[in-house]
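Board notes (copied after class):
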Amino acid sequence: MKKVVAILVLAVGTVFTANAQDKMMKDKMTSKAVKTISLEQTEGEFTQKQVTVSEGTYIFEIANNGVDHNVGFVLVEKGKDISDAKNHIQTAYVTAPVGTNSTQTSKATTLSKGEYVYFCPLNPTSTDNTLIVK
């Protein structure tokens, strides 16, 4: 009976280990495909007014350069109501408010072809900053 239990525990452990390794390999492969879009905010504006990228998965890195309060980041498909949070691409939000002279990143965000607008509701910045995805 002890042998049966030992074999069962060994089999279950092997399955869990194999699944964990598969997940790690998939995560590793996925992370290679993620690129970073770095944007800088100064008092009342983004220094990059237009950015063009290809379709893919991106992390947004937002820098607060000398703004004396926290800043954030909002991305919306062009033409949608930017004041409605339902239209915000929430994975593009920074994971924490960006303090003065620091940076924060968003979660991975998959972008398809089209145009997007980005702005900061905390700074506040212009809402005509454009991200073009080709």
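Comment from the instructor: The longest helix spans residues 2-33. Helices lie at 2-33.
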